[in-house]
Amino acid sequence: MKAIVVRAGKASLEEVELKEELGRGMVRVRTLYNGICGTDRGIVSGSLKFSRPPQGFDYLVLGHETLGEVQEVGEGVNLRKGDLVVPVVRRGCGECLNCLVGRQDFCETGKFTEIGIRGAHGTMRETFVDYAENLVVLPRELGEYGVLLEPLSNVVKAVREVEYLQGRSLWRCRDSTYSCRDAAIIGSGPIGLLFSMALKTMGFNVYVLNRRPPSEVEKDITEAVGARFVDTTKEVAPLPGPDLLVDTSGHPSAFVPLLDRIKKNGAVILFGTTGKEREEITAEQVTELVENNVLLVGSVNASKEDFREGGNLLTLWKEEYPDVLGKMITHKVSPGEAVNVLSGKLKGEIKTVVDWTNG
């Protein structure tokens, strides 16, 4: 089958021979679309040192943002041919309690694998076989928008973590929503925009921050969902400060200066990762965080439960914001074109997807 692989630091479209038998509880899936993200590009560039191929292979099949269609089912499977499905990315170690109860996103041993990232082949290929328990079914009417579910699942998890931890105090407003709370999101890529949509749905007043004016697509999306785009080179970020700060950039220089402006009992979600920058945190800033009871949360990956909730949000948004999801997918490329796109973003890109439907 055709697959996009990384071998010796180079991406290529190749014919690969993978022995994947359809056993009990398993499903064969035809790949429809793959999303391309910073993780994929980090693997290709070699900047993500934790990425590795499966044992016994000298290459890794990329792909962890996936929308597929069930092609064939094995015994003991409730899925049906034609179902739209999205695979969960992380697979448990089989040892720690979190992994044994389906919360491999909190694996304690570090022995997990992640499809298309570390230790397991991904889904940037024509077909793949997986256990049905690793697949989340989506309504067919979502169509290609289902490829946004994997990144959205990470957003859902992060927001749920903060909401749970903020139960330490009375954080909701008098109307039982978060309409009296301000959220500032650093970064306007796909993750930043998905955070803005999720938090607006919860009732937050949302500000999307970047060090530049919005692109036409970013402007359309933020306005459509009722968020405000802030070019921080021209105006000061929201005052007196946010109740929730979300960093999707991974650049300390973007979020550290804002730490002392977070409101009392506020929270910070650190989501972005780059590993390319240093920024000093002063003792005075630490004192402010301590004295104001500010919560700091690092979040990565998602559970199947988060994927399911993300599917509910996509269904809701397709009705509530009929044009927004379509604008999130700014480019579609063929598998052959994807090899070059994996080396850098396209102009005006929010989300680029690999289209396998015409091959």
UniProtKB/TrEMBL annotation:
<dbReference type="Pfam" id="PF16912">
    <property type="entry name" value="Glu_dehyd_C"/>
</dbReference>
<dbReference type="InterPro" id="IPR031640">
    <property type="entry name" value="Glu_dehyd_C"/>
</dbReference>
<feature type="binding site">
    <location>
        <begin position="210"/>
        <end position="212"/>
    </location>
    <ligand>
        <name>NADP(+)</name>
    </ligand>
</feature>
<keyword id="KW-0521">NADP</keyword>
<dbReference type="GO" id="GO:0070403">
    <property type="term" value="F:NAD+ binding"/>
</dbReference>
<feature type="binding site">
    <location>
        <position position="301"/>
    </location>
    <ligand>
        <name>substrate</name>
    </ligand>
</feature>
<dbReference type="GO" id="GO:0047935">
    <property type="term" value="F:glucose 1-dehydrogenase (NADP+) activity"/>
</dbReference>
<dbReference type="InterPro" id="IPR011032">
    <property type="entry name" value="GroES-like_sf"/>
</dbReference>
<dbReference type="GO" id="GO:0070401">
    <property type="term" value="F:NADP+ binding"/>
</dbReference>
<protein>
    <recommendedName>
        <fullName>Glucose 1-dehydrogenase</fullName>
        <ecNumber>1.1.1.47</ecNumber>
    </recommendedName>
</protein>
<feature type="binding site">
    <location>
        <position position="39"/>
    </location>
    <ligand>
        <name>substrate</name>
    </ligand>
</feature>
<feature type="binding site">
    <location>
        <position position="154"/>
    </location>
    <ligand>
        <name>substrate</name>
    </ligand>
</feature>
<keyword id="KW-0119">Carbohydrate metabolism</keyword>
<dbReference type="InterPro" id="IPR013154">
    <property type="entry name" value="ADH-like_N"/>
</dbReference>
<dbReference type="GO" id="GO:0047934">
    <property type="term" value="F:glucose 1-dehydrogenase (NAD+) activity"/>
</dbReference>
<keyword id="KW-0520">NAD</keyword>
<feature type="binding site">
    <location>
        <begin position="188"/>
        <end position="191"/>
    </location>
    <ligand>
        <name>NADP(+)</name>
    </ligand>
</feature>
<feature type="domain" description="Glucose dehydrogenase C-terminal">
    <location>
        <begin position="144"/>
        <end position="355"/>
    </location>
</feature>
<keyword id="KW-0862">Zinc</keyword>
<dbReference type="GO" id="GO:0051262">
    <property type="term" value="P:protein tetramerization"/>
</dbReference>
<dbReference type="GO" id="GO:0005536">
    <property type="term" value="F:D-glucose binding"/>
</dbReference>
<dbReference type="InterPro" id="IPR026583">
    <property type="entry name" value="Glc_1-DH_arc"/>
</dbReference>
<dbReference type="InterPro" id="IPR036291">
    <property type="entry name" value="NAD(P)-bd_dom_sf"/>
</dbReference>
<dbReference type="InterPro" id="IPR050129">
    <property type="entry name" value="Zn_alcohol_dh"/>
</dbReference>
<dbReference type="Pfam" id="PF08240">
    <property type="entry name" value="ADH_N"/>
</dbReference>
<feature type="binding site">
    <location>
        <position position="114"/>
    </location>
    <ligand>
        <name>substrate</name>
    </ligand>
</feature>
<keyword id="KW-0479">Metal-binding</keyword>
<comment type="similarity">
    <text>Belongs to the zinc-containing alcohol dehydrogenase family. Glucose 1-dehydrogenase subfamily.</text>
</comment>
<feature type="domain" description="Alcohol dehydrogenase-like N-terminal">
    <location>
        <begin position="24"/>
        <end position="139"/>
    </location>
</feature>
<dbReference type="GO" id="GO:0008270">
    <property type="term" value="F:zinc ion binding"/>
</dbReference>
<keyword id="KW-0547">Nucleotide-binding</keyword>
<dbReference type="GO" id="GO:0019595">
    <property type="term" value="P:non-phosphorylated glucose catabolic process"/>
</dbReference>
<feature type="binding site">
    <location>
        <begin position="271"/>
        <end position="273"/>
    </location>
    <ligand>
        <name>NADP(+)</name>
    </ligand>
</feature>
<comment type="function">
    <text>Catalyzes the NAD(P)(+)-dependent oxidation of D-glucose to D-gluconate via gluconolactone. Can utilize both NAD(+) and NADP(+) as electron acceptor. Is involved in the degradation of glucose through a non-phosphorylative variant of the Entner-Doudoroff pathway.</text>
</comment>
<feature type="binding site">
    <location>
        <position position="345"/>
    </location>
    <ligand>
        <name>NADP(+)</name>
    </ligand>
</feature>
<keyword id="KW-0560">Oxidoreductase</keyword>
<feature type="binding site">
    <location>
        <begin position="299"/>
        <end position="301"/>
    </location>
    <ligand>
        <name>NADP(+)</name>
    </ligand>
</feature>
<feature type="binding site">
    <location>
        <position position="150"/>
    </location>
    <ligand>
        <name>substrate</name>
    </ligand>
</feature>
